[in-house]
Amino acid sequence: MNIKKVLLIILAVLFLIPILYVGYLYVTYLEEYVTTGSGYGFTIGEGKEDVFNKLSQKYGSKVKRYRFYKDREIYSKDKIEFSDEEYNGLKGYDKWKFYFDEKHIDYLAFYFEEDNLVKIERHRQYFELP
């Protein structure tokens, strides 16, 4: 092989790696909202207790951290136990966000009105936006 071919191959590889990486990030990025029907094992209109129990069964071991919101009040904890006591502490909040990683880039959020589920948000990104 001559030098020109080797340099051409090296340049092609150096050019393709960033393009393939950006393509991977684009394909794995997820931002989805469910406001009717069902998604991720939950159904719009379900009560908070049903959502909590399903979340425990389906995602319990994967949850690394969670936050609950009501107006300007935020409650955050590193580990959820999915117990009756835990549920009684969070049922007064209208937005629940469960993180599957420590960087807060992979989460499932639930929005409630009058104790019924009105929106599910699923977000995942393996990169930080500037």
From TrEMBL:
Keywords assigned: Membrane, Transmembrane, Transmembrane helix
Keyword Membrane: yes
Membrane-spanning intervals of the chain: 7-27
Protein name per its UniProtKB record: DUF3139 domain-containing protein
Taxonomic lineage of the native organism: Bacteria, Pseudomonadati, Nitrospinota/Tectimicrobiota group, Nitrospinota, Nitrospinia
